[in-house]
Amino acid sequence: MDNIAIVGVAQTKYERRKKDKTYYDLVFEMTKGVLEDSGLTLEDIDNVITVSNDFLDGRTISSMAVGEAAGAGDKNISTVEGDGTFGAFYGAMRVLGGFNTTLVVAHSKGSEGDVKHITNGMFDPIFQRLLGLEAISASALQANAYMDRYGVREESFARVSVKNHANAKNNPYAHLPMELTIEDVMASQKMADPIKLLDCSPVSDGAAAIIIANEAHARKAKTKPVWIKGIAHCAEEYFLGDRDLTNPKSLRDAAKRAYAMAGIADPLKSLDVVELYDAFSYMEPLWLEGLGLCNPGDGPKLLDDGITTMSGALPVNPSGGVLSSHALLVAGLARIIEAVLQLRGEAENRQVEGAKTGLAHGINGPCGQSHCVWILGTEK
Amino acid sequence: MATERDYGELLTLTFSTPMPYEWSIGKYGSLFFHEIRESQRFTGIRCPQCGKVYVPPRRLCAPCFKELDELIILPNLGSIMAFSVVNYPFPDPATGEQRPIPYTYGCIKIEGSDNIFNHVIDETNVEKIAVGMKVAAVFKGKEEMQGNIQDIRHFRILG
């Protein structure tokens, strides 16, 4: 693969309701922000990817409403309807395909629609949607199957919530920085057994953007380039019942391909920091298993042994993760941005000292139907 | 000099008109619901290549990318693979009315099939549900049935 790099990042603060901002405002502000960060001008950008979802925006072909705010008036523009990691993946492919610089911008305002109805809308309308399944209840089934298969206890999930909400206190962009105890999480409102309120991510409003450039154009940017060493995404079956929910097969496949591209044989040794898509607390250990950082069923042990804490050998979600800020679609792009800030050494209070190789991860579809894995590095 | 402008109260606009939609259920899906109404039984379909049986029936075995046509009758029995007792309010998508909480979702393996079927289990006490328990489908009365997934009332734990 040719050398390509992320040369600019921008994100909003994530919060429950941005009543003073339209989608257009958010996309415009992020476009301005990411150009400012990179030191590039709009003239340096030759194509744009927007990321949006029509149900979330309450608008058909929602992408058409934000193109100009993304500075794409006279540029080649295209759209990804899915998580921001997938939008960025398409952006990277376009740079590899001959464009010089891609600006990727994602936005969502969960506060304007009804996210339970919107995630209910993910499911097959004939056999599943009428039952009322949506993101929380479907994830509860996955968490239950995971616990049953490996004897995982609810307290292990609670521990993830405690860690990530505490990490969020070091992240000025986070929606829910909180000092919690395992008891707080265990005693929080029962949502759908075994998931409790503090095992769930919030629904946030927010937006984010990055610029991906080829090697020649990366030199024009004022930032320290963060090189894309490996990227892959894989998907599995649509119906929950066709999948083994306790074995994230598509994540295993995506991780294997991304590691191979990046020349990583032992990810636990090679990676310095991980930002993953923990929409619910149980997802962190399950995705760590899928990423091959431990054996199946041993995900919770990584935290029990302190490995994934800020002072451990491989900090996971120093930003507080998706558990503490969850703007749908934007959250995966935020994982890439957080990894970039770590590798630039600009993560301030949440900095992992000396981080040189980072992993960012995003998901699409219920219970992680598809996964996108990014390996980023400070060296070409 | 620019000064802080007073924009007054921030306004919003609410849209609440229904946007109706008519989904085709397809041939195999229609047959699945007809069999439930006529004979109160499930229909599956077998892949000629890997032998996997899917319920409800569909045209394609995705891993084999093989078109399916061997329909088979399945019993109304299954076992619980995963479950969740739901405690937060969410309207019944079929009616828009708030359904009583709690209620229980189940991942159910129908006997003789190889994938997992999602539906509701008629038990909301977590202590009384366990993975591996046998369940049986309970159907609505024939005259109440509408040719949709709610023609199955729920699954009942056996024994």
Overall outline of chain B: extended
Category by helix and strand content of chain B: mainly beta
Terminus-to-terminus distance of chain B: 80 Å
| Estimated radius of gyration of chain B | 22 Å
Largest sheet of chain A: 9 strands, mixed
How much helicity do the residues of chain B have? under 10%
**Helix-and-strand structural type of chain A:** alpha/beta
Number of discrete helical segments of chain A = 14
User: How do the strands of the widest beta sheet of chain B line up side by side?
Assistant: 8-7-6-9-10
Give the rounded overall mean pLDDT of chain B.
Answer: 94
Alpha plus pi helix count of chain B: 1
Rg over CA atoms of chain A: 19 Å
Sequence of strands across the biggest β-sheet of chain A: 3-2-4-7-1-8-11-10-9
N- to C-terminal distance of chain A: 11 Å
Mean residue pLDDT of chain A: 97
Instruction: Summarize the main sheet of chain B.
Output: 5 strands, antiparallel
Largest interface: A-B, 37 and 38 residues
Helix percent of chain A reads 25-40%
Low-pLDDT runs of chain A: none
Oligomeric state of shown chains: heterodimer
CATH architecture of the domain at 4-114 and 203-218 in chain A: 3-Layer(aba) Sandwich
